[in-house]
Design brief:
Largest sheet: 5 strands, mixed
Strand order of the largest sheet: 2-4-5-7-6
Helix content: 55-70%
Number of helices: 10
Strand content: 5-15%
Order of helices and strands: HHHHHHHEHEEHEEHEE
Number of strands: 7
Radius of gyration: 32 Å
Length: 361
């Protein structure tokens, strides 16, 4: 029997082969068969296999294009790689069994041709499957990146617009520099700074531009306090900073660490209840250093703790910011060899803790 005759065998006994393949697929334990797989995948592959055998007979060359198209078709219909591979194996078994039962002689070269077509089908379909998934994932990532950049641009524009309007009002002399307009300008500038710092931190993380150095925490906290006090006053909160033990230090990228602590303080000011206190403390625990930022937000809602570090998560009526700060902070802390966690204080607030390795004296 030549390849052309084998393809004719597939066409002539198509219905029975489809039934046999479906019966084999239905009994499969893993991966679990689906109705779409039984109805769509098996018949389509038999048709493509017959076409491949016929084309191989006529051209004497490879016929992977049709099988790759089949792989893409299976992907678009939601099949998995495991389903593709197992279905091809079931089809091969069904063809062989039926040919033996019907006593249809298949020469060695015909078996080789069948196996070659099946090998090509599996390889090309799986390759196409992976290629299509890469395309889809790339498109999804591009869409997310576009949305993120759009959100960043929108936030920057809003803050710049607020700062510009406040500055114009102050310059014209219609309002006093100690009033609400001045406060709007100050808050806008602080948020612009924080947004730029967070964006730079994300760029450094993505580009692998981390630069470690010994960071003495007492002067580091003093630098953080200078700008944090301004935002605390602007929002009507009190900032309490505990004294840092002399000599306490960590090995870290100073810019990333400043971005993390600054973002935690910004979140605390944002979510804590009106006219309450935010506390910043640094303590040693064995070979670790713990930086705590505590607020008085009233505690976390049930289930919220697991969502806090997800990108674009925002949990208050104040929608300023992109909801990316905690996700970036977690990534930065882990890059520095530490961990970022949150502890709920029911009815009172919550404590975010940066846990980093302690630098030896």
């Amino acid at each position: 029997m030549k390849c052309l005759m084998l393809s004719e065998f597939l066409i002539e006994h198509r219905d029975e082969l489809v039934a046999r393949c479906r019966a084999r697929v239905a009994k499969r334990l893993a991966p679990r068969p689906t109705g779409l797989e039984l109805e769509h995948g098996v018949p389509l592959f038999l048709d493509r296999l017959a076409e491949s055998l016929r084309s191989r007979r006529c051209s004497g060359g490879a016929t992977g294009a049709a099988d790759a198209e089949h792989g893409g078709d299976l992907l678009r219909h939601g099949f998995t790689v495991a389903q593709v591979v197992h279905d091809y194996g079931d089809v091969c078994q069904a063809i062989t069994e039926l040919a033996i039962e019907r006593r249809v002689p298949i020469a060695t070269e015909d078996f080789r041709a069948l196996n070659h077509c099946l090998d090509n089908a599996i390889a090309d379909a799986v390759t196409e499957y992976g290629r299509q998934r890469e395309i889809d994932l790339s498109a999804l990532n591009a869409q997310r990146e576009t949305e993120r950049m759009g959100s960043l641009a929108h936030e920057l524009r809003n803050l710049l617009n607020n700062a510009t309007l406040a500055f114009e009002a102050l310059r014209e002399g219609g309002v006093g520099v100690q009033g609400n307009t001045s406060a709007v300008l100050g808050r806008s500038l602080v948020r612009l700074r924080d947004l730029v710092d967070r964006s730079l931190a994300e760029v450094r993380l993505s580009a692998g531009l981390e630069r470690r150095e010994r960071v003495a925490l007492a002067p580091f906290v003093e630098e953080v306090e200078i700008t944090a006090v301004m935002e605390a006053k602007g929002r009507g909160h009190e900032l309490s900073i505990e004294p840092v033990a002399p000599g306490l230090a960590v090995e870290a990228d100073r810019h990333l660490l400043a971005s993390v602590v600054g973002n935690l303080l910004q979140n605390a000011f944002k979510y804590t209840r009106p006219r309450t206190r935010v506390r910043l403390s640094v303590r040693a625990s064995g070979e670790r250093v713990l930086i705590d930022v505590e607020d008085e937000c009233g505690g976390l809602p049930p289930g919220k703790q697991d969502e806090l570090f997800a990108p674009f998560s925002q949990g208050s009526a104040d929608r300023t910011g992109l909801g990316l700060g905690l996700a970036i902070s977690l990534r930065a802390v882990r890059t520095l060899g530490g961990e970022l966690s949150v502890r709920d204080l029911p009815g009172k607030g919550c404590v975010f803790t940066v846990d980093l390795p302690r630098s030896p004296p």
